[in-house]
Amino acid sequence: MSQLKTGVVWKCVAMICILGIGVSAFAGEERDFMSLSLEEILNMEVTTVSKFAERLFDAPGVITVVTKDELDRFGGTTLKDILERVPSLIGSTVYMTDRSMIAARGDQVLASSSHVLLLINGRPVRESLEGGIKSEMYEAFPVNIIEKIEVVRGPGSVLYGSNAISAVINVITESAGQNEFAVTGIAGQAGAYGTQAKAKWQAGDLSVVASGRFMRKADWETDFSYNNIYTPVDTTVTVKNTIPNEGMGTYVGISYKNLSLMGSYNAWKNHYWVADYATIFPFPTFGVNNWSKSFADLGYKLRVSDQWDMNFNVTYNRSTFDTEAWPNTNRDSYEVVAEWSNYYNPTEKMGLVFGGLYNYFSGEEWGPGFTFTDANRFSVGAFAQVNYRLLRSVNVITGVQANKVEDIDLDIVPRLGMIWNPVARINFKALYSSAFRAPSINELSINFPEMRGNPNLTPEKVTTLDLGMNYQGEQIQAGVNFFHTQQKDVIFQNRDLSVVPAPMYWNGVEVDFMGVELEGKYYVNRNLFLTGSMLYQTNEDKGGIENVTPIANFGAKGGVSYKCDRGYTISLFHIHQGGLDEKFDTQVNPAPGAYNLLSLYARADVNRLFSWEKKPAFSLFLQVDNLLDEVIWLPDWGLLMGKSIPVNPGRAIYAGLNITL
Questions:
Q1: What's the CA gap between 269 and 584, in Å, rounded?
Q2: Using CA atoms, how far apart are residues 78 and 87, in angstroms rounded to an integer?
Q3: Minimal CA–CA distance to 450: which of 491, 489, 490, 494?
Q4: What angle do CA 278, 283, 286 make, to 5 degrees?
Q5: Which residues have a Cβ under 8 Å from the Cβ of 635 and sit 6 or more positions away?
Q6: For labelling, which of 121, 217, 512, 614 has a CA lying 20 to 30 Å from the CA of 167?
Q7: Which residues of 19-32 are buried (b: 16+ CB within 10 A; e: fewer)?
Q8: Can you list the positions of beta strands (E) in 257-307?
Q9: Tell me, what's the pLDDT at 33?
Q10: N-term to C-term CA, the chain
């Protein structure tokens, strides 16, 4: 089936699931918040750090959880909106292939989000050709089905393999606790609209959850300028671009006893700019891009004994990408992961995770009359991690993964750590972790006129030392963490023809990051909630050049939310990113700089306000993004310095209705 036909089928499936009109702020339904203590909400169980359930306070990692309560309080139209509120995560972009990105701890060394690994319910969502594109996931995944998000900052390759360099983001979906159907619809300004629906059904051991989403944000008309050699000297060419922003996504999860199946399809349409080539080509080097990603996982759980659980998973990812103008390129790639995982607790003091996996990657890129890439490869790996309580107040962690990528030498990545609880509610964490990113198919074998692959590439490597102190109270959670990261053998586009015979991918970039993170959450009471974080980081390459990434050294975030017992919620969240190094200043187009993103979310539960006890339940809500109406341009990251591209058009207002049956 062709890519076009596949997309049509998925759109039909999505629209059958989705009823209603408008654009939604996409707040999920409120869970039974009153049944949990505030301490249980702040210190819930997490699974991402060690692949088994443990309390957040005890987990051997630097981890933040976006809870269901926070999702309900602050809203968000996309997954990216939600992730930008997470401590040390920053929204970013590049010029062409990965337009919607999340950078962690200032790490945006590459022109893609290849250093952040995204998981859905613990299973990897990867892209094989370039090595990590997730734009369609960040912009189109149906956020109304999310139960919580666990974000682990720092390396995670010991348990998760390639790409877990600076963060692992685990999106955990809701389960079918009861039968229900909910539909959301809203209209926004300037013709924006969308809709999404969610269904849950359970009958005995069989449970099904499904959601679908379509959203078309307002077109953004903006001027884009560049200097071109075909125009008179000192003449700037200015063109008016109409930037679309349209996404659709679906998610289905089915479980029967120990067997599970889940799948997701997401697609997004936006715009791209290749400003460097715009200066030398007589035709436009900008236009519309289309992304899509299909994800599926089949899993089986086996209870070997009371102390031993075994999981078998087969995960499939397929990614497509095309441009509607120059360079008229098309991509189609897929990955299959077969993994065997074990969770063994021989004693109350010891927990052991071990297993093995096999990956197969295949990808193709082509243009009019040319095939630039058509290749495949495989990799295998084995991993183990031990958590051992050495003393009542000391927990020790050690782990290792051995991985072998086809035609690349066997590699080992280790992990060590210790957690010390000197007194109740306070702990100190010392963690040393390493990770890798295997070269992508294009980096190894593309044959494009402006860039060649390099079959001699080796994996990128990173090591990180984290030192942190954390406090867990009944109503408050706080932490401070210092990190030092060393990245080596980073793959980059080498255009120095005195070193390479033609522009090609090359190992060689080395970057050191150092920084401090602060974060805290405080429930003043069940109604009033406060949250905030801060990141300060510096980075320097092996040549002594500072601030080599297009991410500000300083950023701060804060939110306040009031949820009234009578049924209404009002929340504000503010994101501040500081100024950039002067090397990112521009000659034409607005220069990237400091910005402030303030969002407002308000909801009224109509049934509660009027004491209606029966369903259907109605909720009215309002989402205002970029309340301060700041137009944001960011660096045209990926080629030459001194250029910028538009990212945020300013204030966007959405209002609408949610109905739950």
A1: 27
A2: 17
A3: 494
A4: 55
A5: 550, 580, 584, 592, 641, 643, 644, 645
A6: 217
A7: ebebbbbbbbbbbe
A8: 259-273, 286-305
A9: 61
A10: 37
The C-alpha atoms of residue 10 and residue 372 are separated, in whole angstroms, by 28
> Across residues 601-617, what is the average pLDDT?
92
DSSP 8-state symbol, 592: P
Kindly give, in sequence order, each residue whose CB lies less than 8 Å from that of residue 638, ignoring residues fewer than 6 positions away: 94, 95, 96, 111
The answer to whether 172 touches 149, Cβ cutoff 8 Å, is yes
Q: Is 107:70 a contact under the CB 8 Å cutoff? A: no
Helix (H) or strand (E) holding 398: strand 394-405
Count Cα atoms within 13 angstroms, Cβ side, for 489. 14
For 576-588, letters b (16+ CB in 10 Å) and e give bbeebbeebebeb
Residues 499-549 have pLDDT tens digits of 999 999 999 999 999 999 999 999 999 999 999 999 999 999 999 999 999
Cβ atoms of residues 243 and 219 within 8 Å: yes
Whole-number CA gyration radius for the chain? 24
Number of helical H runs and strand E runs in the chain: 9, 37
Residue indicated by tokens 């000297």: 233
Domains of the chain (ranges; CATH) run 3-660 (2.40.170.20)
CA distances, 52 to each of 310, 340, 396, 414, 473 (Å) = 11, 14, 16, 19, 23
CA distance 393 to 385: 20
Say if pTM beats, i.e. exceeds, 0.85: yes
Residue 507 CA from chain centroid, whole number: 25
Specify the pLDDT at position 12: 38
CA angle 460, 466, 467 (to 5 degrees): 165
Structure tokens at 325: 């103008």
- The strand pairing partners of 266, in sequence order, are 249, 293
Segment holding 70, helix H or strand E: helix 68-74
Name the one residue in this structure whose structure tokens are 């070997």. Answer: 304
- How far from 515 is each of 446, 510, 534, 634, 655, CA to CA, in Å? 36, 17, 10, 22, 39
Burial class, 214, CB count within 10 angstroms (exposed 0-12 / middle 13-18 / buried 19+):
buried
- Cβ-Cβ contacts under 8 Å for 81 (sequence gap 6 or more): 599, 625
Amino acid identity for residue 299 in this structure? G
Is the pLDDT score of 1 beyond 60? no
650: left (phi over 0), alpha (psi -120 to 50) or beta: left
Q: What is the pLDDT of residues 385-411, one digit of tens each?
A: 999 999 889 999 999 999 999 999 999
Per-residue confidence (pLDDT) for residue 614, from 0 to 100: 86
Element (H, E) at 644: strand 644-648
- 50, 59 Cβ separation under 8 angstroms: yes
**Residue 248 to residue 196: CA distance in whole angstroms:** 9
**Cα(408)–Cα(360) distance, integer angstroms:** 15
Q: Rounded distance, CA 253 to CA 256, Å?
A: 10
Q: For the stretch 50-75, what's the b/e string if a residue is b when 16 or more beta carbons lie within 10 angstroms of its beta carbon?
A: bbbebebbbbbbbbbbbbbbbbbbbb
What gap in Å lies between CA 638 and CA 661, rounded to an integer? 48
pLDDT for the residue 162: 94
Peptide bond between residue 422 and the one before it cis (omega within 30 degrees of 0): no
Q: How far apart are CA 492 and CA 506, in angstroms?
A: 5
Contact 82, 75 (CB under 8 A): no
Q: Hey, which bits of 35-121 come out as E strands?
A: 45-46, 54-55, 62-66, 89-92, 101-104, 116-120
Residue 154 Rama label (left phi>0; alpha psi -120 to 50; beta): left
Q: Are 363 and 332 in contact (CB under 8 A)?
A: yes
